[in-house]
Amino acid sequence: MVKLIEDVAKKLEIKNAVSSFYEFMTEKFKNKKSYVGIQFMQKVLTSAPSTTPMTYILSVTLSHYLKEDYPLTIIQDLKLKRKNRLSLKK
Q1: Is the pTM of this model over 0.85?
Q2: Which terminus in the chain has less CB density within 10 A, N or C?
């Protein structure tokens, strides 16, 4: 994700984008929970002005995560569960 944030920041010509992005996230999500619902994220993205570069970076990283990283973790979890079931049968 850090590489993706850096790439988007280069396109937007933002310096210190990763640290600025983490500051933005701690400012927007003060409760520091490990789980944040997708509806809450959508509400934050729609309520924030769309001109801020950090909301753009957040939307790009979210879409990347939901399209590429999240499905891979589900597939890996399913494979691990199947492997564990097979090992228990032996």
Answers
A1: no
A2: C
